[in-house]
TrEMBL record:
<dbReference type="Pfam" id="PF09019">
    <property type="entry name" value="EcoRII-C"/>
</dbReference>
<feature type="domain" description="Restriction endonuclease type II EcoRII N-terminal">
    <location>
        <begin position="16"/>
        <end position="165"/>
    </location>
</feature>
<dbReference type="InterPro" id="IPR015300">
    <property type="entry name" value="DNA-bd_pseudobarrel_sf"/>
</dbReference>
<dbReference type="GO" id="GO:0009307">
    <property type="term" value="P:DNA restriction-modification system"/>
</dbReference>
<dbReference type="InterPro" id="IPR023372">
    <property type="entry name" value="Rest_endonuc_II_EcoRII_N"/>
</dbReference>
<dbReference type="GO" id="GO:0003677">
    <property type="term" value="F:DNA binding"/>
</dbReference>
<dbReference type="InterPro" id="IPR015109">
    <property type="entry name" value="Restrct_endonuc_II_EcoRII_C"/>
</dbReference>
<protein>
    <recommendedName>
        <fullName>Restriction endonuclease</fullName>
    </recommendedName>
</protein>
<dbReference type="Pfam" id="PF09217">
    <property type="entry name" value="EcoRII-N"/>
</dbReference>
<feature type="domain" description="Restriction endonuclease type II EcoRII C-terminal">
    <location>
        <begin position="235"/>
        <end position="402"/>
    </location>
</feature>
<dbReference type="GO" id="GO:0009036">
    <property type="term" value="F:type II site-specific deoxyribonuclease activity"/>
</dbReference>
<dbReference type="InterPro" id="IPR038365">
    <property type="entry name" value="EcoRII_C_sf"/>
</dbReference>
<dbReference type="InterPro" id="IPR011335">
    <property type="entry name" value="Restrct_endonuc-II-like"/>
</dbReference>
Length: 425
C-alpha cells in the first residue's frame, strides 16, 4: 500500500465511532526478546476503557475475545484475546493486561523486525466485539509514522496513547501522578504569567525541570529519564492550562478548529524532537564538559549536515589537521527503528556514529545492521533489560559514553599519558 492508502484508511476510521490506541512496539511486545509474552502490553486503565467487560476482578484472568483485521498487512484477520492476568489478587505476583493470540512471528505484531514500530488499534466503543471487527495498522516506514503522528501527536517509547477522533487533541492515558502530589505538574497559579502570553520554549521548560529535578549525585542515565518525565508533565500542565479553556469555549468554524488543533500537534512534535537534545546538553555541562571546547550542538559538519553533538568541537572537526580518530558525534533520537539510517552521513570524518535512543529494544537483525554500518547505540541503563540478552553487552550507557569522553579528553590534554581508573565518575 502507498502512503495515500494509509491516509485513506485513517480517514475511513475517523468516520466511525471508535477509540484509537497507539503505542510503539517494544522488544517485550514482539518476540525480539524471546520473552514469550505473545502480545503487546497495554496499561490496564486503557484496556478496561477499550473493553469495559474485562474489568472483572472477581474472575481469575478475565478475557474478552474479538476479531481483528490488520489492514497494513493485506487485511490479515485473527480472533484475538484481551486478557487481564490478575493473580496478584490471589497471593501471587502478576497483575498486567495484554492482547494475545497473534499466532507467532509471522504476525506484524510479533515480528521482531517491527520492534520500535508505531501501531494503531481501532476499537468500537463499549463491548460490541461480537458484532464488529476491530482494525489495526502497524507502520512499515518512517513516512507512515510521520503521517499518523501528524494526526494524533508524537508517541514516544513506553507511552500508551488513547484517542477519540471526534476530540481535537489526543489524551495520553499513561496517567501522570495526581496533581496535588506531583512536584512537576504546575497548577495554574504556579505557571509564569508570561507563559500564558507566549507558550514557553523548550529551553524554558527544561530550566523549570532542573528546579524540580536537580538530582545531584544521580548517574546521568537516571537524571535523563527522571527529568524527561518531569519535563513532559510540566509541558502537559501548561498545555492544559492554556488550551483547555479555548477548547471549552468552542470554535466558530471548522477552519478555526483545525488551525488550533494543528498548532497543538505541531507544538507537541517540536517538543518531542528537541527535548532529548536539550536534556543531554544540560547533563554534559553538569558533568564537566564545556560547550565550545568539549562539545558543540547542531554544528555544521558538512554543508547541510548538522549532527546533534560533535566532540570536542565544531572548530576541531573543521580543522583538517585535527586527527579524525579523536572526533566523536552523538545523535539523539527517541526511537531508532529505520531512523538510525538518517545519521550515517551526518559527519563524514567520523566512522563510528554514536546514537542515544530511548527505544525499548531492537531486534538482533536491526542491531547487526546498525553495527555493520558503524552505529554504536547509547541506551540509558534501566532500558537495557528490554534488549535481547546477547545485545546488552554491546550497549553503552550514557554514563559510559560521558566517561569515555572525559578519559579521551584527559588523555589528549596529557599528551597521551594514561588516566587512572579512579577518575571514573
Amino acid at each position: 500500500m502507498a502512503l495515500a492508502d494509509l491516509a485513506d484508511w485513517l480517514d475511513e476510521q475517523s468516520r466511525r465511532e471508535t477509540l484509537w490506541f497507539a503505542k510503539r512496539l517494544s522488544a517485550n511486545d514482539t518476540l525480539a526478546n524471546n520473552a514469550h509474552q505473545a502480545g503487546p502490553y497495554i496499561p490496564k486503565n486503557i484496556l478496561f476503557t477499550l473493553f469495559p467487560s474485562l474489568d472483572r476482578p472477581e474472575d481469575k484472568n478475565p478475557e474478552v475475545r474479538f476479531r481483528l483485521q490488520i489492514d497494513s498487512h493485506q487485511g490479515e484477520r485473527r480472533e484475538i484475546r484481551a486478557v487481564w492476568y490478575n493473580n496478584r489478587r490471589r497471593g501471587k505476583t502478576r497483575d498486567e493486561a495484554r492482547i494475545t493470540g497473534f499466532g507467532g512471528r509471522s504476525s506484524p505484531f510479533l515480528d521482531p523486525e517491527n520492534t520500535g514500530a508505531l501501531m494503531l488499534l481501532v476499537v468500537p466503543p463499549g463491548d460490541n466485539t461480537q458484532t464488529s471487527i476491530c482494525r489495526a495498522w502497524v507502520c512499515r516506514n518512517p513516512s507512515e509514522e510521520d503521517l499518523l503522528e501528524d494526526l494524533i501527536g508524537p508517541v514516544e517509547p513506553g507511552k500508551g496513547f488513547l484517542w477519540a477522533p471526534e476530540v481535537p487533541v489526543g489524551k495520553d492515558l499513561v496517567v501522570p501522578p495526581p496533581k496535588e502530589r506531583s512536584r512537576c505538574w504546575l497548577l495554574e497559579n504556579e505557571i509564569p504569567e508570561e507563559w500564558f502570553k507566549k507558550f514557553p520554549s523548550g529551553a524554558e521548560i527544561i530550566k523549570k525541570t532542573l528546579e524540580f529535578r536537580p538530582l545531584h549525585g544521580e548517574i546521568p542515565d537516571k537524571r535523563l529519564l527522571k527529568r524527561r518525565e518531569c519535563e513532559y508533565e510540566i509541558f502537559q500542565s501548561v498545555e492544559e492550562a492554556i488550551e483547555l479553556p479555548v477548547i471549552r469555549r468552542g470554535f466558530s468554524s471548522v477552519s478555526e478548529f483545525v488551525d488550533r488543533a494543528q498548532t497543538i500537534l505541531q507544538r507537541r512534535k517540536s517538543r518531542s524532537g528537541k527535548s532529548l537534545e536539550l536534556h543531554l546538553k544540560e547533563i554534559f555541562l553538569e558533568d564537566g564538559l564545556s560547550e565550545g571546547r568539549d562539545f558543540s550542538c547542531q554544528a555544521e559538519s558538512e554543508p547541510g549536515k548538522r549532527p546533534d553533538f560533535i566532540f570536542p568541537s565544531e572548530a576541531a572537526y573543521r580543522d583538517p589537521s585535527f586527527p579524525s580518530e579523536k572526533l566523536r558525534m552523538l545523535a539523539a533520537k527517541t526511537t531508532c527503528k529505520d531512523r538510525w539510517r538518517q545519521i550515517l552521513n551526518e559527519a563524514d570524518r567520523i566512522q563510528v556514529k554514536h546514537l542515544l535512543t530511548l527505544q525499548d529494544g531492537v531486534s538482533e537483525n536491526q542491531f547487526r545492521e546498525m553495527s555493520e554500518s558503524g552505529v554504536q547505540l547509547v541506551v540509558p541503563k534501566s532500558l537495557h533489560d528490554s534488549y535481547p540478552p546477547n545485545i546488552r553487552q554491546n550497549l553503552l550507557t550514557l554514563k559510559d559514553f560521558i566517561y569515555e569522553l572525559r578519559v579521551w579528553q584527559a588523555f589528549s590534554q596529557n599528551g597521551g599519558e594514561s588516566i587512572a581508573a579512579e577518575d571514573e565518575p
